[in-house]
Amino acid sequence: MLMMAIPVSAKEEKEKSIFVKIETNYGTMKVRLYNETPMHRDNFVKLVKENFYEGLLFHRVIKDFMVQCGDPESRNAAPDKHLGAGGTDYTLDAEIKFPFLYHKRGALAAARKGDFVNPEKKSSGCQFYIVQGKCLTDSELDMFEQNVDQVLQQQVFNAVMQESEDSLKVLKQDGRMEEAEVLRRETYLKAQKMVAEKNPFKYSDEQRRYYKTFGGTPHLDAQYTVFGELVDGFNVLDEIAKVETNSADRPKEDVLVLKMKIVKK
Length: 265
Prior knowledge:
Layout: H1 10-15, E1 18-24, E2 27-33, H2 38-49, E3 60-62, E4 66-69, E5 91-92, E6 107-110, E7 123-124, E8 128-131, H3 138-163, H4 165-173, H5 177-197, H6 205-213, E9 226-232, H7 234-241, E10 257-263
């Protein structure tokens, strides 16, 4: 008998989501993990179940931007220790689902090294941040749209160029330099054409409304993996975000993760 697939509503999808309670010395927050980013979801759940985050600090706090946690070197760290470089012995492949998942206020996202040393935008295996952000104007969003569009154009261009990388390598190894140059030029022109044919990026009405009403950090869109969102404890996020920090953005008084655990909705 033919079985028909039954569409899953957004409400049902949320009910099937995994929730994590983050208890800190400033209060308790709760996040929902996105099923659309399964690698990041499962890795976060694994670390939570292993009690990896207990005793770690929110080591980087920037008001109107974000609060960051997850550096294992922050456990019992001396007050003058510079933090942020610690991590696991692995990284996670990017799961950037933009524009579906974006950096709205409360977004839970993976920290990572910069593009210069990490062009594939691979995520830290353990460090994450929660967006506080700020409300934006239409003119600011217009500017960020252009910035995001440039990022997306570059991604299209890079993907097309990457397609011919193996063929170019073989031609060069065989000493067929003229053929390699022809292929490189053809690929370059193809990439330029695909970028030119791409429709300019525009935020949806809903995204604009959210950024203008509740806030966020749109300059990070399309560049970092967003894998969850804050559903409770926005007041705690705001309290953490306004603590006094040093020149390295580390809170002068420790903001500590006391416990993380998987909870029901």
